[in-house]
Design brief:
By secondary structure, the chain is an alpha+beta fold. The protein contains 21 helices and 16 strands. It has 5 domains: about 45 residues, no CATH class; about 90 residues, no CATH class; about 70 residues; about 220 residues, 2-Layer Sandwich (Nucleotidyltransferase, domain 5), CATH 3.30.420; about 140 residues, no CATH class. The radius of gyration is 39 Å and the shape is elongated.
Length: about 675
């Protein structure tokens, strides 16, 4: 296209804004531009100074080169129509410049198309005569119109749009009032049980008559009506599965933006889901357990995981937070390749900051800045939010019914199901349609927890993730440990050490009086000698009615802890009837015992009678629902001591201390080879 001025070039006749005044370009000489304002004042400026001046703008210009065509749309044009458009473009270029686009260098225009001797109108008239004689009848007016379209849209403007007519939108030929009612009725199907199109037709006909009168809106034939409903229902699944239909309605309308983080701990997402594996709770009683995890968005590290019987509590969420802040210890029997010192994590440098990492497994300790939670009661409880506030962690609730706000943790649950659960004996699938025959539980809750912890270290932390990339290695997927090693050198590591007092702080809180006989909680009496000076005394906390702050463990009600607001520290207060019960018990065991007494017509507020029923529940070897409650109790009270968290005084854990590196029975792992996984890192 020689001879055409490229787009954006300043030319004579253009109007520009310069020095807050509108000027017209009247002359160009090398790098000099002559301007004239509306009052006739002339000025001469350098081109570079003009375009770089503050407030410069090209207001309008003479027609330049044709616009760039929409190349994607040109691919949809039928070949004959595209050849015709390019044919006219070729001749318009000759009429515009005097030369065909493929003319050899140094060629001279034909006399009838020479811009030196012929005006544009004369050249277009000559071109119309030439095309008509050659077998393509066209008038000069048509060429003028085509030239305008070509200069605005390029070759796309020369395409015959009649060949591009697509299908009409749904309901284009139907009465718009009928279409509006059909759309309304289809939208209402989301909350209804799945029906047929005939039901929708009857509902539409009734509403049309109610709103517009009998015979006012024409109802099409049954076949046409059926096609209209089918077209308007596209993508709505109004006549499919109700779960699919409702999931469509819960999708966010706003554009989806993935959660991003550039340093470890910047954003951590927490959630709970039932695990698709049957576990042996106790005495052969089996059931599904719940898995709570905390996932770091930047590195995809599973910072901590807690397995519990169904019914996760606020104390479990607080325990999950505590485990996030302490190193994962090596277990006896684990391969040496699973040590942090054998991984890509800069162990030696981190050891100089945090001595707890000496015997740590290959999983980084990540201190959260922000935790994203859903609206589950365990995560919005005072226990959890207070713990986060104490540790300086910001809590960000996700929007209701918007799982995309926690997309990383939701996707992690799916990966756990694929990479771990389906390989474990007792896998039942996510629903009954995926369950095999005669599926039996093999692992106890403690063994399953140990198994999962080993899998996290050996597989998850060293396995490449497609969502983890480095700008320096864009074609290589990285593992969570590799990404952490890259990021920690830039963001650093801040150790947070938790003590036994910190563990007590994470427990749920009740406010109670200290009476002559001690403290009463749900008809249980707690008392000890240390409470003597505080009996019938105010706590000095007027906002709580001068009651005393009492912390308790829902999975072990044998002791409570009272904050000593005068001397500081905690007072450990045992249950007065602790000797009558042979094992620790949970709050749901106590409530179940009370309900049994009430069913028998006995007094469910009699502490002695309740304690006897609890002991009977924990020692009974029969079958039925009582046995299941006992199994849940014993499984839930198995809280292993973690490094950095001391056992509360006078508790069963304190009576039988567990070494930091011995947390339970060694469970061999047979799903993968730890040495092979370690070599992949």
């Amino acid at each position: 296209m020689s001879g055409l001025l490229p787009r954006g070039v300043l030319s004579v006749g253009d109007r520009v804004r310069f020095a807050d005044t509108v000027h017209s370009v009247v002359g160009l000489a090398g790098t000099l531009v002559r301007l004239v304002d509306d009052h006739g004042s002339a000025s001469l400026v350098l081109f570079s100074h003009l375009v770089a001046s503050e407030g410069f703008a090209l207001l309008d210009s003479q027609p330049g080169a044709p616009g760039l065509p929409p190349f994607g749309l040109l691919d949809t044009v039928p070949e004959p129509a595209l050849r015709r458009a390019k044919f006219f473009e070729r001749h318009l270029i000759e009429a515009e410049t005097g030369l065909l686009p493929d003319a050899p260098p140094g060629s001279s225009p034909r006399p009838e198309y020479d811009p030196k001797w012929r005006t544009l109108s004369e050249r277009l008239v000559a071109k119309a005569e030439e095309l008509t004689v050659s077998g393509t009848p066209v008038t000069d007016r048509t060429l003028f119109r085509l030239r305008g379209l070509w200069r605005e849209q390029g070759v796309w403007g020369l395409v015959d749009r009649r060949v591009m007519r697509g299908s009409q939108p749904p309901g284009a030929h139907a009465d718009e009032r009928l279409v509006a009612v059909v759309v309304e009725v289809l939208a209402a199907q989301e909350s209804l049980s799945t029906g047929t199109r005939s039901r929708v037709m009857r509902q539409v006909e009734r509403l049309v008559v109610e709103r517009h009168g009998q015979g006012v809106v024409k109802i099409p034939s049954r076949a046409t009506f059926y096609r209209l409903i089918k077209a308007l229902d596209a993508g709505k699944h109004s006549f499919g599965a109700a779960t699919t239909r409702r999931s469509q309605g819960r999708r966010p309308q706003e554009p989806f933006t993935p959660t991003m983080a550039v340093r470890p701990g910047e954003v951590v997402q927490i959630d709970t889901t039932p695990l698709d594996v049957l576990a042996v709770l106790d005495d052969g009683v089996t059931g599904r357990v719940e898995l709570s995890i905390a996932v770091d968005v930047a590195t995809r590290t599973i910072c901590a995981a807690v397995l519990r019987p169904a019914g996760t509590k606020a104390v479990d969420a607080a325990l999950l937070l505590a485990r996030t802040l302490v190193p994962e210890p090596m277990r006896p029997g684990w391969a040496e390749a699973l040590r942090m010192s054998a991984s890509l994590i800069p162990h030696a440098r981190l050891m100089s900051i945090d001595a707890r990492l000496e015997h740590a497994a290959a999983k980084p300790v990540i201190v959260p800045d922000t935790i994203v939670i859903d609206h589950g009661k365990v995560f919005i409880s005072d226990t959890f939010t207070t713990a986060c506030r104490t540790l300086g962690i910001s809590v960000q609730p996700a929007r209701p019914a918007t799982p995309t706000d926690k997309g990383v943790v939701e996707r992690t649950f799916s990966s756990i199901n694929t990479l771990f659960c389906q390989h474990v004996a007792g896998y039942v699938g996510s629903n009954v349609t995926q369950r095999g025959q005669d599926v039996e539980a093999v692992w106890t809750l403690r063994e399953l927890s140990e198994l999962f912890e080993e899998w996290l270290i050996a597989c998850w932390q060293s396995r490449p993730h497609d969502g983890l990339r480095s700008p320096f290695l864009p074609n290589k997927a990285l593992s969570p440990n590799e990404v952490y090693a890259l990021m920690v050198t830039r963001a650093g590591h801040l150790p947070v050490c938790l003590s036994g007092d910190d563990y007590i702080e994470l427990l749920p809180v009740e406010w109670r009086k200290i009476n002559d006989y001690g403290i009463v909680m749900d008809y249980r009496t707690y008392d000890c000698r240390e409470l003597g000076p505080y009996r019938r005394q105010p706590s000095g906390v007027p906002l709580k009615g001068d009651l005393w702050e009492v912390h308790y463990d829902p999975y072990d009600l044998s002791h409570v802890w009272v904050r000593d607001s005068r001397a500081g520290g905690w007072i450990t207060v045992p249950w007065t009837r602790l000797g009558t019960v042979s094992a620790p018990f949970a709050d749901f065991t106590w409530r179940h015992a009370r309900s049994l007494l009430a069913t028998r017509g006995a007094d469910d507020t009699d502490e002695r009678a309740i304690a006897a029923v609890v002991e009977d529940l924990l020692t009974r070897a029969g079958t039925g629902p009582d046995r299941k409650v006992a199994a849940r109790t014993r499984a839930a009270t198995a809280l292993p001591t973690r490094p950095g968290i001391e056992a509360p005084p006078d508790s069963d854990l304190a009576a039988d201390p567990v070494p930091e590196t011995v947390l339970g029975e060694v469970v061999p792992f047979g799903v993968f080879d730890a040495f092979t996984e370690g070599s992949r890192a």
